[in-house]
Write a structure and sequence with these properties.
mainly beta; nine-stranded antiparallel beta sheet
Length: 204
């Protein structure tokens, strides 16, 4: 497969510069079982470099705005049970440019979310030292080209893990992409099918 080559960038490009505003909140329950953070950001990039649909340099006259929110929650409601979940929204587009004005930046999904739930059996249980976990990711559509006509489709991924811990040792077996989902990176490359990874770790 022959990949397109990017035309050499001019030597006299001006530096890109940006103005960023960001703020957020952090919440914790009194018993420490739930922790949450939420933030909002607004980034304005000037002198943004524009690349055409053939991956060639076009110009440097873009003004690009990226704004969105990030939310993360970590909960430990029961001994051995850990829950993590996150969500991010990003509106990233060219608000002023000779080309692609009003279009979304390539390779950047608007909505992304994830979760991971793990449980380790507690002392006294017949399954003590054994743990299991399951998690997933959702990635929204993104565009492959500046005209926003070619799309990387959205996808859901699910992963599972089984582990055994003893003193400083941990043995783990993780299966990624449980449903054997066919999906692509933000750059349009086909990603891994279902596969299993084994690992051994030792903590000093």
């Amino acid at each position: 497969l022959k990949m397109p080559h990017m035309r050499a960038l001019p030597k006299n490009l001006d530096p890109e510069h940006a103005t960023q505003y960001e703020g957020g909140v952090k919440l914790n329950t009194a018993d420490g079982k739930i922790n949450a953070t939420a933030s909002y950001y607004h980034i304005n990039v000037h002198n943004a470099v524009l690349i055409d649909n053939q991956n060639f340099f076009l110009s440097q006259d873009g003004e690009q705005v990226s704004k969105g929110v990030d939310v993360e929650v970590i909960a430990n409601p029961l001994p051995g049970l850990n829950i993590m979940a996150g969500y991010a929204y990003n509106d990233n587009r060219y608000v002023r440019a000779s080309s692609f004005e009003g279009k979304y930046a390539t390779g950047i999904p608007q909505h992304v979310s994830n979760f991971w739930v793990s449980y380790k059996f507690q002392p006294g249980s017949a399954l003590k030292n054994i743990g299991l976990a399951v998690g997933g990711n959702f990635v929204d559509d993104s565009f492959r080209d500046g005209e926003n006509t070619s799309i990387n489709p959205s996808y859901n991924l699910f992963n599972g893990s089984l582990f055994y811990e003893l003193n400083k040792w941990r043995l783990g077996l993780k299966m990624n992409n449980l449903a054997d989902t066919r999906y692509y990176s933000n750059g349009g490359l086909l990603q891994n099918p279902r596969h299993t990874v084994a690992n051994v770790s030792f903590n000093f």
